[in-house]
Amino acid sequence: MLERARANGVGHMLCVSVNLEDYPQVLSLARAHDNVFASVGVHPNEREGREPEADELANLAEDPAVVAIGETGLDYFRSEGAMDWQHERFRNHIQAAKVAGKPLIIHTRDAAADTMKILREESARDAGGVMHCFVEDWGIATQALDIGFYISFSGIVTFKNAEDLREVARKVPMDRILVETDSPYLAPVPYRGKPNEPSYVRYVAETVADLRDMDLERFGGDTTDNFFRLFSAATPVN
Q1: Which are the contacts of 179, defined by CB distance < 8 A and separation ≥ 6?
Q2: DSSP code of 198?
């Protein structure tokens, strides 16, 4: 998989943590490959595993292979009832990111207003971060940009029914755009419906570059620069 990514022009990858039980595997991948980086965090929908406090997350983030806190945020699509537990977890991750000095990877689904509210209340601007797998409208994008966050587009931007999202991709300032896979989900056209993998991020980049009338090589260079500016603990590999 790493070789296929390299062959498709993908030089660096971020392996994102979704729970603490699998985090050692995430960390081992990042330690084994100098072009793979790790995050540490617990996804908003995880209910079965261990619940970390902010200080534990901050301590884990001290590892040199860890460049971000997350994936964190809010998800009301898969969860029902009172969401206090999600809110508390989210706030803990934001506090950890500020202590660790590493940016946040934000997941939000059917919860955009509350997500932005908590980011503002907890002064998430001090940590910075990215709205990962962005699917919201320009209004939410503007709120995220206003607190210094980046916007990351996944394979969804290539789907036929995603014209509203493509319009957002045209508007986001170039120095705030990232592209991603969200593997193993959301494979872009022409692989939609199949398991996703890092090499396919090229097709996301091609789509967004076309939307912005940009050369792919320039777009790839700019988004790579954006990645290392946001995830400043990551070291590029030639």
Answers
A1: 152, 153, 154, 201, 204, 205, 208, 223
A2: G
Residue 95 · residue 127 · CB < 8 Å: no
| This prediction's pTM | 0.96
**Distance, CA of 165 to CA of 206 (rounded, Å):** 15
Question: Is it the case that residue 81 has pLDDT exceeding 90?
Answer: no
Q: pLDDT tens, 160-195?
A: 999 999 999 999 999 999 999 999 999 999 999 999
Can you read off the two tokens belonging to residue 122?
């907890």
Cβ atoms 173, 145 nearer than 8 A = yes
Is residue 195 included in any domain, yes or no? yes
In a domain, 236, yes or no: no
Q: How many domains does the chain have?
A: 1
The strand order across the sheet containing 13-15 reads 13-15, 36-40, 66-75, 104-109, 129-131, 150-153, 177-179
> 28 to each of 49, 133, 197, 203, how far by Cα in Å?
19, 24, 18, 28
Domain annotation covers residue 238: no
Beta bridge partner(s), residue 109: 75
Based on C-alpha coordinates, what's the Rg of the chain? 17
Q: Reply yes or no on whether the pLDDT at 63 is more than 80.
A: yes
pLDDT of residue 25: 97
Q: Which residues pair with 75 in a beta bridge?
A: 109
